[in-house]
Design brief:
Length: 811
């Protein structure tokens, strides 16, 4: 260790000497340091010289002094050991690491490899945590906070809009190296409006860090993220953040994990002090205290002695950890029953085994903003989250009826990669790709399994937020990006004749619409380009043109979602937009059974149209819809050949046509079963079109007398406010026709969490109202819950408005 330090100091002094001599010119130096032979080679032609020693340094000098290097495999972090007592101080030397793709390759030297996502409720500290990870691993030289006074903003929030609003809008990818592991990281948004970014990240990642606020605990979006992680079987560790804030309580957060998320969670650390006294953590497994010193928490002071006031708590939480592990792990259960004490390695192995099977969640603690707890969390990522080959991923064999086939995760097998995110750049489409097996090599040809197109790989890059590093190849388990590929999100790529496709992801339906048009007709071309780009990037953003009004209708996940894209049109494409009042996606349904008997007869000279259908329509219950997996059902109960069998599909198409537009307000119809019992046909005049028109008209007419009603989207709304404002906030929700479900006070009585169900149509402008009612201290989030019937007076008002619109169009 002392030799490493000595060599580094010699190396640093040599570099300074040559930088001075270079006079600000950008030179590449290759420094070769050996005990018997210290020489410096300057490569003016910028060609890398091949050297056999492991002690190789590469430096690209710039006007700013940054040292990038590698010394063997154990150089970063640089350790400074103390020889007295059991104390140890070491520094994570943020300025010393290697960014060479050769050193970071998953295939080099048998290094560990992790693909992780950082997910949480909005404002829990995800981006701040990612910023600290990048600093401690040497990917960035300095720390900039999300809402920092310097105005720079966090590295992962690369979009101007993100830095202005202080929120993450797009997921951002980066990579770093910690100890002997290469880590790919995706930082995701926390706002429910951008939940698709979390969905696509968790679809391709092997592990996750679930960040939780030490004060608020499990919040509404924490529940959503947990559902997404469970949907894709993503093992996760939890990080209780913001323990420096007033009112923080990590034990309440762990109770929330167990009770609300139903996770088998237990702490592997306990904090040394809370709120303003938070200064470090105690490792329960290794029984040591870690304090974070230095300007940026880069110096870790480890003491193999637990503070006296925490010894009892450490023992209690250690027993709780062992008990929780014994519930799911046979080896620990056996030791537990035998009343034997498991070793540190026994516990670590058990935690890893059960984390990989999603049966256990280890909980880490700290404060990212105050630079505490991040390095031990990174150690936990290496100890407990899976290598790419340890997480089972399955492809669908399209030649065998989409039979599931487990992916090998080997670079030697044929290529299988998934395009999970698209981004338009000035250089063309940037396609983010997760490689499940095989290799991507620059210049090779790959095939899009979905459409059979063959594509040549022109450029492969690693992403570091909005920066790129060109590489020539990438192996199994890597997350990379490519230029020059025209594809859709969730397309699968192969390099051979394999007809395997990776399964897609869950895409939620949009809940809010907005009529949009450019302020100036000269902007129409840029407007079209922007719409095309945004809808390709974001599957939850939908665009349709109203066939009658010719209006462009933009549908998305909420008010903020649509607002962000309108603002991006203005900034990125210089298109000023005129927007109409957001339109809620109402739906229609029926409430009673009603028979139909409809004849469609039309004679135009020559061959005419003739079709007759008989049957009934009836409402479908919620349980029946869930069982069927669709919102409407066509049930053919015809016997005989009064309707020739070849026209049955035409009748079903006619039913689908009728469901597109209801009779009350022209909205989509759901919850209807159409039963076809009999009918009649004509040998000459009957046709597919005749039966399709007949069926559509029959259903449209019959629905008018089946007690139709309008359904509106209802949102699950979570409001967090200081207790002082409870009366005015609850009254505000009641005015908006909200149904209060629960109202829970924080342990210290300072805050209140209100859960309510509120119609989406009544939630427009609520963010402004809440801020004004709570002096800017209140927060809310909402998520689509269900469609429910509207009040009778609301239905009449909606029908009246629709009738007026139709009359205005006709005029």
């Amino acid at each position: 260790t002392h030799t490493h330090l000595l060599i580094f100091l010699v190396f640093q002094s040599k570099i300074r000497k040559y930088e001075k001599r270079a006079g600000g010119v950008h030179w590449r130096y290759i420094v070769f340091v050996r005990a018997q032979d210290k020489e410096i080679y300057r490569d003016k032609e910028k060609k890398e010289k091949k050297m056999s020693s492991s002690s190789i340094f590469r430096l690209v000098t710039t006007n700013s002094t940054r040292v990038l290097g590698k010394l063997g495999s154990s150089f970063t972090p640089l350790h400074h050991h103390m020889n007295h007592s059991n104390n140890k101080i070491y520094s994570t030397a943020a300025a010393i690491t290697s960014t060479s793709s050769r050193f970071l390759s998953t295939e080099s030297g048998g290094k560990k490899h992790r693909n992780i996502g950082i997910s949480a409720h909005i404002d829990s500290g995800k981006t701040t945590l990612t910023e600290r990870i990048l600093y401690y691993t040497g990917r960035i030289n300095s720390i900039h906070d999300v809402r920092g006074k310097d105005g720079v903003g966090a590295k992962m929030d690369s979009m101007d809009l993100e830095r202005e609003k202080g929120i993450t809008i797009q997921s951002a990818a980066t990579f770093c190296q910690w100890k002997d592991a290469h880590i790919n990281i995706i930082d995701t948004p926390g706002h429910v409006d951008f939940t698709i970014e979390v969905e696509r990240a968790l679809r391709v990642l092997d592990g996750g860090i679930l960040v939780l606020c030490g004060v608020s605990g499990v919040q509404s979006q924490s529940l959503t993220v947990d559902r997404q992680m469970k949907r894709y079987n993503v093992p996760r560790v939890a990080f209780v953040n913001k323990l420096d804030r007033q009112g923080s309580n990590p034990w309440k957060v762990i109770d929330d994990l167990r009770n609300q998320l139903k996770l088998n969670a237990a702490a592997v650390q306990i904090p040394i002090g809370l709120e303003s006294e938070h200064e470090g953590i105690v490792d329960i497994l290794e029984q040591k205290a870690i304090r974070f010193k230095g300007d940026r928490g880069e110096v870790l002071e480890e003491v193999m002695e637990i503070p006296d006031e925490l010894k009892e708590l450490v023992e209690e939480k250690r027993e709780e950890l062992i008990s929780r592990l014994a519930d799911v792990d046979d080896d620990i259960a056996e030791l537990f029953l035998m009343e034997e004490e498991p070793t540190v390695q026994d516990l670590k192995d058990a935690i890893r085994r059960q984390t990989l099977t999603c049966s256990f969640v280890p909980v880490f603690m700290g404060s990212a903003f105050k630079n505490k707890g991040v390095q031990p969390l990174l150690d936990g990522v290496l100890d407990y989250l899976p290598e790419p080959h340890e997480k089972a991923n399955f492809a669908l064999d399209r030649s065998k009826g989409e039979q599931e086939v487990q992916v090998t995760a080997s670079s030697d097998d044929p290529l299988l990669a998934l395009a999970f995110k698209l981004e338009e750049t000035p250089f063309g489409q940037l396609t983010y790709m997760r490689i499940y097996q095989g290799m991507l090599k620059k210049g090779n040809h790959i095939t899009n399994v979905n459409d059979g197109k063959k594509i040549k790989l022109a450029r492969i890059v690693r992403m570091h937020s909005d920066d790129m590093e060109e590489i020539t190849e990438a192996g199994a388990g890597e997350v990379v990006a490519m230029f020059g590929i025209d594809c859709k999100s969730m397309d699968t790529f192969s390099d051979g004749d394999m007809n395997f496709a990776m399964s897609s992801m869950f895409v939620p339906e949009p809940v809010m619409s907005l009529a949009v048009k450019p302020a100036n007709t000269k902007m129409q071309n840029n407007f079209s380009k922007a719409i095309t780009k945004f809808t390709k990037e974001d599957p939850t953003l939908r665009v349709k043109v109203d066939s009658e009004t010719k209006e462009t209708v933009l549908s998305g996940m909420g008010e903020l979602h649509l607002e962000v894209y309108i603002e991006r049109m203005k900034r990125e494409y210089e298109v000023e937009c005129v927007t109409g009042q957001p339109k809620v996606n109402y739906k229609e349904t029926i409430n009673t059974k009603q028979p139909f008997d409809w004849l469609h007869k039309k004679q135009t000279g020559g061959s005419g149209q003739y079709a007759k259908v008989m049957g009934f329509i009836e409402p479908l219950s919620e349980a029946e819809r869930l069982e069927l997996g669709k919102s409407n059902e066509f049930d053919n109960r015809c016997t005989g050949t009064n309707i020739p069998p070849e026209y049955y599909t035409s009748c079903e198409k006619g039913m689908n046509d009728a469901m597109v537009e209801g009779s009350l307000v022209g909205s989509e119809v759901e919850g209807v079963r159409v039963v076809l019992q009999d009918g009649a046909s004509h040998a000459v005049d009957s046709s597919d079109m005749a039966f399709r028109i007949c069926m559509a008209n029959a259903i449209r007419d019959t629905m008018k007398s089946a007690n139709p009603s309008i359904l509106e989207p209802v949102m699950a709304v979570e409001v967090e406010i200081p207790t002082d404002f409870q009366g005015s906030v609850v009254a505000g929700l009641n005015r908006r026709m909200g149904m209060i479900q629960s109202s829970d006070m924080n342990d210290d009585g300072s805050g209140l969490k209100i859960l309510a169900e509120v119609p989406l149509a009544n939630m427009f402008g609520y963010s402004t109202e809440l801020r004004s009612m709570t002096q800017g201290k209140g927060e809310f989030s909402m998520e689509y819950l269900k469609h429910s019937p509207v009040m009778r007076d609301t239905q009449e008002e909606l029908m009246k408005r629709y009738k007026e619109e139709m009359e205005a169009k006709a005029a």
